[in-house]
From TrEMBL:
Protein residues bound to diphosphate: 13
The gene coding this protein: pfp
Xref: InterPro entries: ATP_PFK, PFKA, Phosphofructokinase_dom, PKF_sf, PPi-PFK
Pfam families for this protein: PFK (PF00365)
Pathway: Carbohydrate degradation; glycolysis; D-glyceraldehyde 3-phosphate and glycerone phosphate from D-glucose: step 3/4
Annotated protein name in UniProt: Pyrophosphate--fructose 6-phosphate 1-phosphotransferase
Site feature location: Important for catalytic activity and substrate specificity: 115
NCBIfam families: PRK14072.1
Site (Important for catalytic activity): 141
């Protein structure tokens, strides 16, 4: 059977290690040229497939592809473009198959979160019905850590390491100034519906830091929260508050809701930290500072978790190996074997059980008062932030790679999104 080409694309918010997965996909494919002729990447994610804007990765040197392992963000461009249901917009799925046919693509590797898993699953279904079967493999990625079945998601461990480190360092700063200045520091982190990133800040408790966490999974009780802040400050002289962007009032409103929607139809969030900080100021009079981690938490490759880098690469490699073994509509997973010593292996999950399913913080991971994490949560989190995997540095800055991203010649007509 002649070798087919593969299509790879990155989707949604990027991470410090998504390019490590890309590296795993491309390097593994290059070792199997008898089955995979070339890897074409989508410029700006799935949009690249729809508009036939493909990137020829064969023109990149082995050294450049290897450097992806140490480079943050999405090397080929990502996007927040959600394909609608097959019933609502069949033309886009048919266009994907048309592009795959035109470029002899038999493998589809989609690197993203829950929405990407859904798209990947639909493509696998439609390709069969249209008589052009494509092996669709989802490569897991999300700092939100909310994909089901897999123990954790590539991208999360590094974000967790960055947040825990930043919260620790900022807390030392506040502690230094608390006698005459700032007494409360508020850090806002990502996590629309799941509080995994916020939970990572709970690890600094073991360093003697008074910290309160506001999770999306726990309804925000303003009176209880303000009482907890006051108690911490009275006991320690200062307090650090970590608030997930998805923290909500009992009526379901986000603390940070702006009344607008993003490209996926999700409520546009922004501003939970100042909301909480001003709430504290009005109730207690404490001087405060606040910060929003925003892109910093998902771009910080200089502080990536070695565990995370290794798992991200392994997911990309496994995706290709699954495809070559004939698997379809599946996602490689991280399967935890033990906590201490930490051990894991690659598992496999059907996309039918992954698509449109979110994994939330278990209640037994959150302390009884709702403002911290439990020992079992610490056992889960600690291995994921372990190890350092620094990028190479040059002239004092990380030396990251920018690819050529040369286009593949188009064969089809223009397609309007």
């Amino acid at each position: 059977m002649p070798a087919k080409n593969a299509f790879y694309a990155q989707s949604g918010g990027v991470t410090a290690v998504i390019n490590a997965s890309a590296c795993g996909v491309i390097e593994t494919a290059r070792r199997h040229t008898d089955k995979i002729a070339n890897v074409y990447a989508g410029r700006n994610g799935i949009i690249g497939a729809l508009t036939e804007d493909l990137i020829d990765t064969s023109l990149e040197s082995d050294e450049a592809i290897a450097a992806l392992r140490y480079t943050p963000s999405g090397a080929f461009g990502s996007c927040r473009y959600k394909l609608k249901s097959l019933e609502a917009n069949r033309r886009e799925y048919e266009r994907l198959i048309e592009v795959f046919k035109a470029h002899d693509i038999g493998y589809f590797f989609y690197n993203g979160g829950g929405d990407s898993a859904d798209t990947c699953y639909k493509v696998s279904q439609l390709s069969e019905s249209l008589g052009y079967p494509v092996q669709a493999i989802h490569v897991p990625k999300t700092v939100d850590n909310d994909l089901p079945i897999t123990d954790n998601c590539p991208g999360f461990g590094s974000a967790a390491k960055y947040i825990a480190t930043s919260a620790l360092e900022a807390s030392y700063d506040v502690r230094s100034m608390a006698k005459t200045s700032t007494k409360v520091f508020v850090l806002e982190v990502m996590g629309r519906h799941a509080g995994w990133i916020a939970a990572a800040a709970g690890l600094i408790e073991d360093h003697g830091i008074p910290v309160l966490i506001l999770f999306p999974e726990i309804e925000f009780d303003q009176e209880r929260f303000l009482a907890a802040v006051k108690a911490k400050v009275e006991q320690y002289g200062y307090c650090t508050v970590v608030v997930s962007e998805g923290a909500k009032y009992p009526d379901g409103r986000f603390l940070a809701e702006q009344g607008t929607r993003d490209a996926f139809g999700h409520a546009q969030l922004g501003g939970a930290a100042p909301v909480v900080a001003n709430m504290v100021k009005e109730a207690t009079g404490y001087k405060f500072h606040w910060a929003v981690a925003d892109y910093l938490q998902r771009a910080a490759r200089h502080l990536a978790s070695k565990t995370d880098v290794e798992q991200a690469y392994a997911m990309g490699r496994a995706a290709v190996e699954f495809a070559l073994a004939g698997h379809n509509a599946v996602m490689p997973t991280v399967k935890r074997l033990s906590n201490d010593p930490y051990a894991w292996e690659v598992g496999e999950a059907p996309l039918s059980e992954v698509a449109n399913v979110e994994k939330f913080m278990p209640r037994d991971f959150i302390s009884e008062d709702g403002f911290g994490i439990t020992p079992v949560c610490k056992q889960y989190l600690t291995p994921l932030i372990q190890g350092e995997d620094y990028p190479p540095f040059e002239h004092g800055l990380p030396k990251y790679v920018t690819l050529k991203n040369a286009p593949v010649e188009r064969k089809l007509g223009v397609f309007e999104l």
